[in-house]
Amino acid sequence: MRATLRWAHSDLRTHRGEALFLVLATAGIVVSLLLATALFGYATNPWQRVFTQANGAHVWLHTSSSADTGRLSSVGAVESVAGPYPTATTTVAARGTRASVELRGTPERPAVDRPLLTSGHWLDPANPDGVVLESRLARALLAAPGDTLTLPGTGRTLTVLGIADSAEPRYRPGEQPGLVWAPPSAVREPGGQVIGLRLTDPDETDYAVQRAVTVLGAGAVDEVSTWKQARAEAQGDNRLLGQVLGLFGLGALVAAGLAVHGAIGTRIRGHLRDISVLKAIGFTPGQVVRVFLIQHLAYALLGALAAAALIQALGSRIPGRLGDAVGVWQGLPGHTVALLVVPVGAVLFIGATTGLAAWRAGRVPPVPVPRPAAPLGGRLSGPARRGLGLRVPPALVLGWHRAFTGRRRSLATVARLALPLLLIVVAMSAWTTIDRFDSRPERIGLPTALTARADSGLAERDARALLERDRQVAAAYPGVEVAALVPGQTATIALRGLGTRAEPYPYALAEGRAAQGRDEAVAGQGLLDLLDVKVGDWVRMTVGDQPQILHIVGRSIEPENAGRVISTSLDTLRENDPGLDPTLYELRLRPGADPQEVADRLVTAGAGRLDVHAVPNPADGLSPLRGVVVGLIAVLALIGLIELLTAIGGTVREGERDLLALKAIGLSPRQITAITVTSTACTALAAVVIGTALGTPLAHWLIDAQGRSSGIGAGIAQGPSAALLLLYGAAAVTGAAALAAVPAARAARRRLADTLSAVA
Amino acid sequence: MRLPLLALLARGPAHGYELKQDLEQTLGSAYPQPNVGQIYVTLGRLEKQGLIEGEDVEQSSRPNKKVYHLTDAGREALRAWFEEPEDEPRVRDEFFMKLALAPQTGLADQIALINRQRRQYLNTMRQLSKLAGAEDRDNRIAHLLIEGAMLHLQADLDWLERCQEELEELE
Amino acid sequence: MSDDSTPVLRADGAAAPKEGPRSPVLRAEGLVKTHYGEGAPAYAVRGVDLAVRQGEFVAITGPSGAGKSTLLHLLGGLQRPDSGSIWLDGECADKWSEARWAVERRKRLGIVFQFFNLVSDLSVADNVELPALLAGVPPKRARAERAELLAELGLAGKERSMPGELSGGEQQRVALARALVNRPPLLLADEPAGSLDSKGTREVMRLLSRFHQRGQTIVLVTHDARLASAADRVISFFDGRIADDAELDGGTPSRRAGISGVLELRD
Asked: Where is the Transcription regulator PadR N-terminal domain positioned along the sequence (chain B) (predicted)?
């Protein structure tokens, strides 16, 4: 044991740099995997917790006030019913912020989907104007129990009695109205009613919806929302972030495993003599294997422990969503298990790759023999010979030759170096895509930056005039957004009519063409998946009690509503309903305009009759992703560095053998150094080319797959610009050459006697 | 023996016994011990050839001893000796005779001959080693002599190996 | 064949010769080893029988390529014979796995090669102490043994040097120290002076003789006749087989006056 430790200790002293890199790389990988776990936990769990605690309803149906909801409880799959509650959609304002809300008249605390009070208390019959706000709405309005809300345009006020969590789809400014529970007396002019259904079997949701809609009559149902939608929306970006981190973490883990394997293999090849001597002295093969295994396991363990400790201690202090996620995750039940399992798993994986390589060390024969002439190599190729003849510097030719004739081993080196480079290219693509969300939102399906809603008092012409008067507004597209029941009646989708045929809305199209003629529309990926149709099909849906038939001629990129949107022009919808007035206006701003500034100006100009919100950009939720991408690139660069150092070490060692011969030919030490440097640079170049060639399509595929699954739709992927790729490639090659220069120069100037002893 | 004696006399005049002592001292114990009588005989011959000249010296309680010194002719002969390179040492033809003639006599086996000769060489080598150990460290000439003998022995042993290889092939 | 050459000088702690019937330290019977490389198979060892007694100094000579090194590797367990048996100290080693051989090599065998005796990563002190630590000797005692051996071999100041900084002769002396640190009953040496000049060869010879005088059993493979002549017993190895096995004594006195007839004075 002591002998093993002695050997391991001195081995560590000679390979300090490599050990450090391995520790750091393992730490980085484990950090990313732990963060991914945290984000996943954070994503799913809170909503699940709320749903369970609140005895949540699986289906929410918004119907007209006259619908007969009594028969719903007789639908087979329904366990219990919440409501019906009268609802009214209005706007409230607090401290200057406005929000559109759904006032729900709840006589007593519902049994199904019971709101979980976080502060204050429930409705009080003594206080007819007291209401309870949903927590996200309250946060947006900065309201606390005791505050007063005004209803603009009516002069009424409401008092906030409490704030509660709910498992329903939450408030999203401009998209989803917030939920306010009020005594039924406070709900004047109810516009409809809402019923919640709790099902015996959550998997039967589609069936239950269908049955419910049939029972109620399709014309009576305005909107359907299910628990799956609520959950997906609650998870939202966290899930994406978690997926990205997890994917990269795993990819980096594989790359690190390969790097360790390669490093050990190269080290063994350089130390064949020493291992033979050790075996001759009396080290058993098992001991030899154990030394390598334990060494590298120790490095990996150190890195993993450091990472776990770091996350545990400082994780919740990370700014932004990541910190929140870690904070919440630390309180979840599965936390300790995950904190143990993830680092142990990473260490075991690295241990497995180490074991493979170390096993080979154990098989080195105990007879120390002069190093056999390397079996690699081949004849100088024709072009190389001609190059020499044409006075191409011999160092370049020989360097090229050394890099690329050696079949398996040089291929393996290039492949192992290409893997982290490939992953870096994928990371850069992710960065560029997110960047485009910010800088060119019109390409990602967000051509307009602001949505304006006008009070019913403002006519369309006046509203448009008001909006377009602002000098930074380039165009205002009128539109409506309604909920429509799909065929099969298992869900409602958003049907939008935006723009007119004269001034069409500039959709971002990924497939097909824009909707021009009658009954033509473009749909988002989410919708196509939901209805199981493709571009070119006709779909029929019910709006209110009116059927609407549309021909899908194109697919647009839809970041809203999980892509379950079908869009056509206002004129098409007006054909069915001539009296249709636009309820919203999408505003396209001039380049360089600040949306918030323009919004404030318009609200002021509208004198309280305009409600202007910024259109949510998915990239906002993804901004932590940028920091993550940078961190991942750093970890991958470390792994690439390990691979590079391994490759350089191997090349230098093999080159020692030829030192004398090259000097005899007449090459100066500088030229001999240049051979090694060129060979390393060529290897790096090949790796960069392969990494880029494979990485760019892979990145596109990955990002598009993610887009498709989240409903935004494929086609959002943006590869890094050609200039960036060239810079990256140049940096990699020059970096490799620079790293190779020092050891190569040292080797070229070794005294002849040393070389003899190295080779003999 | 003639020219070595001339060389010794070139250092200065000496008589026979002194010459014997000089020889022993210079060459060390590895060199075959010269016979005193042989020295006197050689000195006589040299004097007859005119290369040295002797002088009688009176001694009180002993017979006269003759002190010799080098003549010009002797010096000339000496210079010629130094300038001329020597032939290589002779090959051991007696052993080779045995080896070559052993087959078909029915009296000796070639391999056995080689083995016996090898043992002899090894024993001789051993004795040379002992001599080298016993010899005074500073007597470089003596050590060089012993080393020369050893190297010759090594060469002979290598040659024995070659003989064995060739003969094994023939069988 | 003189049997009773008990060593006169005996330094402390040397391998004490067993009293009573002397079982051979090493015995081999019918060893066969063939190398299969590119081209025709090479019959390195063809049916070799060998017995080495305690305190013997055996030299194995022969032309290069005859298989001497292979024979030594077989005796040290570094290679497996194709057939035949080996007994170390009376214990049969046929069934020993590579790991078992490694354990035995720590205490029972010391091995010195022509090149590559030292681990290039470790200092001289570490190199010498390693077998002791492997054998379970407490570090303090290992250090003491190491200091003693290095002093004896004239390397007192070089504990911290790396092998790359030493000359060839110094490296071989360190290798000898390493091989002898556990006082193994048997020392195997494969061309220990093969890469040295004549001065280095003399040093090695002197050291081997000194340890032999203290009772160390040595099996030496060499093509240098001078080294071979330092042994008690010379085995001529030829083409995979033992051609001659001779005990060296002073030899019969030569017929001629003078030791070597080569130095004959011409009259």
From this structure: 5-79
